[in-house]
Amino acid sequence: MHLRDTPQEAAFRRDLRAWLAEQVPRHRDGGAPGDWTKALHAAGYTGLTWPAAYGGRGLPPTYQGIYAEESALAEAPDHSNVIGLGMVGPTIVSHGSPEQQQRFLEPILSGAYVFCQGFSEPDAGSDLAAVRTRATATADGWRVTGEKVWSSYAHQADWCLLLARTQPDSTAHTGLTCLLVDMRSPGVQVLPLRQSTGDADFNQIVLDDVLVPRDCVLGPVGEGWRIAMTTLAHERGTFGITLTARLTVEFDRLLRTVRDLGLADDPTVRAELAELHVQLQALRWTGHRTMATLARTGKPGPESSVLKLHWSVTNQRLAAFALRLLGPAAVLDGPDSHAAGHWQHLRLRSRANSIEGGTSEILRGIIAERVLGLPRTR
Amino acid sequence: MDFALTDDQRDLASAAARLLADRYPVDRVAALAESGDADPDGWPYLRRQGWCDPELPVVEKGLLAQEAGYALAAVGWWSTVGLAHPVLVAAGRDLPTGPLTLAWQDDPDTGQGTRAEQRAGTWRLTGRRGLVTEAAGATALVVAADTDTGPALFLVGAAADGLTVAPQPALDRLRGAALLRLVDTPAEMLVGPEAAERVLTDARRHAGTLLACEAVGVARRALDLARRHALDRVQFGRPIGAYQAVAHRLADGYVALELATSLALRACWLVGAGPDDAAPDEIAQAYAEAVVAARQAAVRACEDAIQVTGGLGATWEYPLHWWYRRALWLDSFDTPTADHLATLAGHLLHGRAQPARPAA
Question: Mind listing the pLDDT tens digit for each residue in B97-125?
Fold first, then answer.
């Protein structure tokens, strides 16, 4: 057990931090989607843990953890290919054919192929196995018709990793297949989903008789559930570290708000700040513990569900506390309000934290069944 | 960074768990608690097992403390190794073979403390010390007393003249409180006023870090008891663990336990790393964070377990309340949670905060 960076990790962190300090301000305002990915790629910060044979650097997961932490702390722009790099790429490494690896991996790293993910549907949210999007075999491959929701980056994406039902009379986990869908195929339509904040971070994807060639099936036909679970496991890898580092940024902003509002000497404010800080530190060090487990065993331990679950609780608690600090002025929004409406926005946005990426109810169920060994609750 | 237990550390923890499970089955814990006695042969046994080895790093001691909390081992190990040994080590003394404790708190009833005077080359202590842990079996006591030039730390034999150790009825019968009365009691100075405050602070922090680990062990045991019951107890035709209201409560308890474990282990590592590898502020904050999280996790796990075990959990016969009593003791002993939070707020708001950002 050692709680400090190794000299090599410290050097990596130092170089990365210097690079981010120089590059982030240039990219934060404006720039075309994908520019940031290209800059990261040119600097060698994509595919850190990917095998060298696929264009990666073959580094241990701790380096991906340092990258996740530092880029979130630096408030780096959203990485437009976060799904390609973090989820789809590793899935292709594990389950793709040599031709698919040849075709997709390098462009994912360079940002030439931006990916989105098409898993959730209007009737398949927490119950992902209820997928209805239908793929029918044809002479050339598959014809796909259906609707996907809550897809991030779909409006910028070149490709989509799609979960579809290839066996017409199948139910639940069987008869599903993962498909690599070219987003420019005829019949693909992307529509923004507007959230309660007014932003549109997610999209709806409508597929109407879209042709997917046979060589774009990822993994065996009918094994889509297993492949999709690999993808979601990768999502949990370092995402907890990213979330915690973003929470650190919010906490620093909260400290500024407390000082700006002249509340730094209020004992109830101080006590709540200290409580939040304890939760933040607990998340941070549990993230490091998860990372060490990942580095040793190659897969994230059960702590990773803990991170997502408790992060959502803490982010919501922080957002609620921050808005309460504003008092009656919390009713304003936009440029006339404190911090230009930042806390109003976070309060609204944070409600989705316990829903997106696995609802808290699903995560509690995972912990209850897989960690505590309790019976299935449904 | 590699924040994971080594194979040796895992082996140490599982060996300790097996040993304590054999020696302290639940009915023995309950019997010892009923009688209010420590296990008379427990001390030499743990000593032979290497639990008092002065070379043990703090993380390893933390793992033993976790298991001691899990088993509710009725031995004065924590007071000896956690509180008293650091003072003797700081004083450059050899460690005695018997159990020890450290008395530094005033008598909460009278507010009275202890004075030290030197006469004819011998130090003599007069006054009181309250809330002394595990004093009953101790062969010697480290006692804080005020000299004319400031507080100092002394060694007092359990059989010294003028010393009375009066056990007091305690919430946690397995970690009793005692009131010391000292009348002209001969004592040996261990640490003089120039260093006593620092040594006492360090000893309390060392012991408090081990208590955070003990709290993690208490939380884990309470969760295990609740989990067992949720699997066995059938109502409406199903094990109650199949109901989400029960399962999700236990899942949340597991979350609190995992988070507290991270902070407790981190605090052990930093306390063990010492000032060369860790800044004093970082150590102080990590300690406060660990204590706050671990106390909350232990109390919560016990209260959740009482809820899940239903009427059973509220009886005297069901052993859970012994762990709950320990959790409540842990929640109250030494520095109050509000003071730990105040310390953290001071660091956060007055520019002395340990950055949540890692050093580069």
Answer: 999 999 999 999 999 999 999 999 999 99
Are residues A278 and B289, on separate chains, in Cβ contact within 8 Å? yes
SS3 call for A69: helix
Contacts of A264 in chain B (CB under 8 A): 349
Write the ipTM.
Answer: 0.95
What residues of chain B lie within 8 A of the CB of A363, using their CB? 251
Q: Can A361 be counted among the known catalytic residues?
A: no
pLDDT band at B351 (very low <50, low <70, confident <90, very high): low
Residue B219 has pLDDT above 90, yes or no: yes
Predicted confidence (pLDDT) per residue in A36-67, tens digit: 888 999 999 999 989 999 999 999 889 999 99
CA distance B331 to chain A (A): 15
B116's enclosing H/E stretch is strand B114-119
As a whole number, the mean pLDDT across chain B is: 95
Q: What is the pTM of this model?
A: 0.95
By percentage, how much of chain A surpasses pLDDT 90? 78
Task: Out of A126-140, A176-190, A300-314, give the one with best mean pLDDT.
Answer: A176-190
Please list, in sequence order, all residues whose beta carbon lies within 8 angstroms of the beta carbon of residue A61, skipping any fewer than 6 positions away.
A49, A237, A238, A291, A294, A295
pLDDT band at residue B353 under the 50/70/90 scheme: very low
Please tell me whether residue A157 adopts helix, strand or coil conformation.
Answer: coil
Q: Residue A19 and residue B44: Cα distance in Å, rounded?
A: 58
What is the least distance, in Å, from the CA of A202 to any CA of chain B? 29
Check whether A30 has a pLDDT greater than 90: no
* Euclidean distance between CA atoms B219 and B66, whole angstroms: 9
Provide CB contacts within 8 A for A79, sequence distance 6+: A36, A37, A40, A71, A85
Q: Give the 3-state secondary structure of residue A80.
A: coil
Chains A, B: CB contacts within 8 A come to 173
* CB-closest option in A285, A376, A377 to B3: A285
Q: Hey, which residues 152-181 in chain A have their CB within 8 Å of chain B?
A: none
Q: Residue B303, CB half-sphere, CA atoms under 13 Å: how many?
A: 11
Please identify which of the residues A235, A250, A272, A303 carries the catalytic annotation.
Answer: A235
Count CB neighbours of B343 within 10 A. 18
- The Cα B85–Cα B54 span in angstroms is 8
pLDDT tens per residue, range B275-285:
778 999 999 99
Pairing of strands B140-147, B234-235: unpaired
Contacts of B223 in chain A (CB under 8 A): 372
Confidence of residue A87 (pLDDT cuts 50, 70, 90): confident
Chain A residues near residue B221 by CB distance under 8 angstroms: none
Residue with tokens 């680990």: B213
Q: Is residue B352 pLDDT above 60, yes or no?
A: no
Using a CB-CB distance cutoff of 8 angstroms, which residues of chain A are in contact with residue B238?
A: 375
The span from the CA of B290 to the CA of B340, in Å, is: 10
Q: For the CA atoms of chain B, what is the radius of gyration? A: 21
Residue A366's closest chain B neighbor by CA? Answer: B251
User: Is the Cβ of A371 closer than 8 Å to some Cβ of chain B?
Assistant: yes
pLDDT at A36: 86
Cα–Cα distance, B50 to B352 (Å, whole number): 40
In angstroms, what separates the C-alpha of A372 from chain B's closest C-alpha? 7
3-state helix, strand, coil in chain A (%, to 5): 55, 15, 30
pLDDT of residue A265 exceeding 70, the answer is yes
What is the phi/psi pair of residue A31, to 5°? 90, 145
Mean pLDDT confidence for A75-85: 87
B-facing residues of A in 71-110 (CB < 8 A) are 73
- C-alpha A30: how far from its chain's center? 22
